[in-house]
Amino acid sequence: MPEIAVIVLSALLFALGGYGAMARKNPLQMFMAIEMMWNAVNLVFIYFAHRFGDVGGQIFVFVVITVAAAEVAIGLGTVVLAFRGREHLDLDELDSLKG
Amino acid sequence: MITLISYLAGAAALAFGVAVVTTRRSVHTVVALIGNILSLAVLFLVYQAQFMAFVEVAVYSGAILILFLFVIALLAAGKEEVANEYGPELPGQLFGGAGAAALLAAAILVAFRLHALATAAAGVLPKGYGTVQSVGIGLFGGYLLPFELTAPVLLAAIVGVVVLAKPRTVREEAKGDA
């Protein structure tokens, strides 16, 4: 693929994830959209690591995946705690901080 | 051949990506995200990141999405899924979104046209690039500090999840003792 195609693919996936993170009401689906954003960035790192022959980009992807795993563990723990015993999985129901 | 595979994988990644943000049921979203990740792993292989492709499949579609499935089983099973209706419309909401998308596209194109990346010579791939050996040498060589710093991140995540998972009464008792 030409370079611009990879960058545009990654940007499209990132934007799709951003849309999902904002438009989704189900907290789990919102989380999965964010996971897609992590992966869109990973693609660019892998591509440019290959382009410049430097393994550093792949190391960065390794770190990103580690942080993503930690984020998912904490995030899902929070979601379970917030929505346990609730009727619907709806982010709009979390409004107890509303004044 | 490689070009064809990369185009197919890219198209599949995009199609699964659309499915991730449009599917109604959470389980279908998980399946779409697995497809997205597997297509991206194929692209990783095209760009000679064999070890990272393996890590992507093992950690993402292996560990992280299984975690999602467990939480879906815990929370969403038997409940009707909420529709993704939009909330009260803000004035200029569509305009703002379209503007942000156009800005992103413009930034990419301008960066691509102006930046030295567009003309920089491709690096020479070292022998054995992307293998476990080369990534390992990087991890334990020049990138030792970032690699070591992932350990406290994971430790913080473990401690955080354990604290979150404790029943409220246990936490309050612990607070009382302190």
How many β-strand runs of chain B? 0
Structural class, from secondary structure content of chain B?
A: mainly alpha
Mean pLDDT of chain A: 88
Figure out the total of helices of chain B.
Answer: 7
- On the 0-100 scale, what is the average pLDDT of chain B? 84
Distance between the termini of chain B: 66 Å
Please specify the SSE layout and strand pairing.
The complex is a heterodimer of chains A (99) and B (178).
Chain A: H1 3-23, H2 27-52, H3 56-83
Chain B: H1 2-22, H2 26-46, H3 50-76, H4 93-114, H5 132-140, H6 144-165, H7 168-177
Structural key phrases:
heterodimer; A: 99 residues; mainly alpha; 76% helix; 0% strand; elongated; B: 178 residues; extended
Provide structural commentary.
The complex is a heterodimer of chains A (99) and B (178). Chain A is elongated. Chain A is 76% helix and 0% strand. Chain A is mainly alpha-helical and 99 residues long. Chain B is mainly alpha-helical. In chain B, 74% of the residues lie in helices and 0% in strands. Chain B has 7 helices and no strands. In chain B, helix 1 runs antiparallel to helix 2 and helix 2 runs antiparallel to helix 3. The mean pLDDT of chain B is 84. At the A-B interface, helix 1, helix 2 and helix 3 of A face helix 1, helix 2, helix 3, helix 4 and helix 5 of B.
Task: Give a quick rundown of the structure.
Chain A is mainly α and 99 residues long. Helices cover 76% and strands 0% of the residues of chain A. In chain B, helix 1 (2-22) packs antiparallel against helix 2 (26-46).
